[in-house]
Design brief:
By secondary structure, the chain is α/β, with parallel strands linked by helices. The protein contains 12 helices and 22 strands. It has 3 domains: 112 residues, Glutaredoxin (3-Layer(aba) Sandwich), CATH 3.40.30.10; 179 residues, FAD/NAD(P)-binding domain (3-Layer(bba) Sandwich), CATH 3.50.50.60; 113 residues, FAD/NAD(P)-binding domain, CATH 3.50.50. The protein starts with a strand and ends with a helix.
Amino acid sequence: MKEITSSEFESEVLAGGKVVLDFYSTECPPCDALAPKFEGLANLYGSDIKFFKMFRQQNKPLAEKLGVKSSPTLLFFDNGIQLEKSMSGGIKRSDIIHQLDSMIPAERVKEIKSQIIPTISEFDVLILGAGPGGLTAGLYLCQSKINTVLIDIALPGGQVSNTHSVSNYPGFIEPQPGYMLSHNMSEQTKQCGTIYKVAVDVTRIDLEKKEVVIDEFETVKAKKIIIATGTSPNLMGVSGEKEMKGKGISYCATCDAKYYGDKEVVVIGGGNSAVEEADFISKFASKITMVHQFDAFTANKQAQEKLLANPKISTLFEHEPRSFVRQGDKIITEVENLKTKEITKLNSDGIFVFIGMKPNIDLFREKLELDKWGYIKTNEDMLTSMPGVYAVGDVISKKYRQITTAVADGTIAAIAIAKELS
């Protein structure tokens, strides 16, 4: 692996045969997460594909010319031709491998794969999930001098990273951008000494043995495990939803609202998330139609008052979506009036869905005691039904799910574990 500048681009990349180029930045958590994967793959594939890094800030004109808009970004070249496939953000090792494999003969791929040596790493505590609960637990544990690793299939921050504004986190007079709040939490925990293994594929979780296999080759062992895997958006199961997910149907206003400037959108839901995110979307969209199954919003009164005063937003109460159909650049949403059973067609440029969340427990659902909604039961120390396994944050059974309650959960679990291990 070699670092180059734009002056070397033509000689090293365009004339270099098969090449992968990493545009990175400083103070960039996704770049930090990618670096060890990139280096490790360079050691594996380096005889067949050249690996180069380029500092994006100091090579901005070239980056812009190549269409690089974020850090990190991986570009792939074959004999001077830039391949269509590129990667950015929280890049997984498996995705890079898939692309590298496509660039070389199948027999050579088999030879390279045969060189992969399984590894084992051991820690005192393994935290699954890097949202506020997991990050707080990591912070308290590392301050207690407990060897801790934090594993996440995404980048640190959890859902807070995709929240446009957080106005109720103690210590901040002004509302904080969610990505900045989660970034500061993550950096504090990392600087303390917690080891990060993020944007990885979790292949297997064995709670009894306290083992987690990541990226198919590394087994991470620990004395204690904290589950902080959080929740994911509920899907409606409506015709057309699966096909248009990420292609006009979104579950994240912070991620996608900016693409709907002066356009019309439909928002499904009527709770806090739906109402607050609809208000945020209205900063971009020209018109918003909300579809809610009940006869009134269930969001807090302050959020409702702000929404009802917004001239861009109208609401169809006691309606539910029945199908989504693409028609040119538009999406037709068929909604049913739950009283009259009448079907109405809404014409829009995009759909945002906010209808609640479900716990991320698929890899260990059968191993722990759950409540009737599928959330993990814990005691006052955040201990689950399995010895040595704790759970914190939105994934556990509790009345309120907020950033502050997740932080409290992480604190409690970490202190309880620290006392046990000491």
